[in-house]
Design brief:
The complex is a heterodimer of chains A (116) and B (114). Chain A has no helices and 11 strands. Chain A has 116 residues and is mainly beta. Chain B contains no helices and 11 strands.
């Protein structure tokens, strides 16, 4: 079963408008959530994150919202720019005290296209 | 700046060959990861290492093994390559501890097995 789901494979928005990318998870052990951005022929790069003790985190044009009761998070990009066109991966992390490490489970990704 | 490098950007191998994918990070990270990325399937964890010589299986370890003899280097080994291992392979690293959730990725190796 897929523990992290991004139900929209693609999203197209006009430059200057808001982009909203969604992500759902099932495992209550996840305590930290991240968004990564990936351009073609490059590895993913970290964009923004949120701890499970918060419901919102903002960084410039990017805001992540977390609804723990619904097990849902979303990434808002305002205003959207053509350079934001990329694949966005949602990731949910669970920490293990045995290994002293957080391991992430990734969604399938959403391809965002921002049209000029 | 964190740098994660992978030995090859593109690799073509024949079925049955033993394949080595190398990853090196320069940030003294304790954790290193190997993922494969396939269309519509996102990133799936193959193996994870949380210290030198320490490893843990990920979600899809079958057909793969790993080696971590030095902290900065993590190798993925395909013992006998098969066509269903044709994929993009991504290496990542992170710090240990609760604060080490962000992973830094290499550029990826696109492996084709013919």
């Amino acid at each position: 079963d897929q523990q992290v789901k991004q139900n929209s494979p693609s999203l197209s928005v006009q430059e200057g408008r808001i982009s909203i990318l969604n992500c759902d998870y099932t495992n209550s052990m996840f305590d930290y959530f991240l968004w990564y951005k990936k351009y073609p022929a490059e590895g993913p790069t970290f964009l923004i994150s949120i701890s499970s003790i918060k419901d919102k985190n903002e960084d410039g044009r990017f805001t992540v919202f977390l609804n723990k009761s619904a097990k849902h998070l979303s990434l808002h990009i305002v205003p959207s720019q053509p350079g934001d066109s990329a694949v966005y991966f949602c990731a949910a992390s669970a920490f293990s005290h045995n290994t002293n490490a957080g391991k992430s489970t990734f969604g399938d990704g959403t391809t965002l296209t921002v049209k000029p | 700046d964190v740098k994660v490098t992978q030995s090859s950007r593109y690799l073509v191998k024949r079925t049955g060959e033993k394949v080595f994918l190398e990853c090196v990070q320069d940030m003294d990270h304790e954790n290193m990861f190997w993922y494969r990325q396939d269309p519509g399937l996102g990133l799936r964890l193959i193996y994870f290492s949380y210290d030198v010589k320490m490893k843990e299986k990920g979600d899809i370890p079958e057909g793969y093994s790993v080696s971590r003899e030095k902290k900065e280097r993590f190798s993925l080994i395909l013992e006998s390559a098969s066509t269903n291992q044709t994929s993009m392979y991504l290496c990542a690293s992170s710090f240990s501890g609760l604060a080490g959730r962000e992973q830094y990725f290499g550029p990826g190796t696109r492996l084709t097995v013919t």
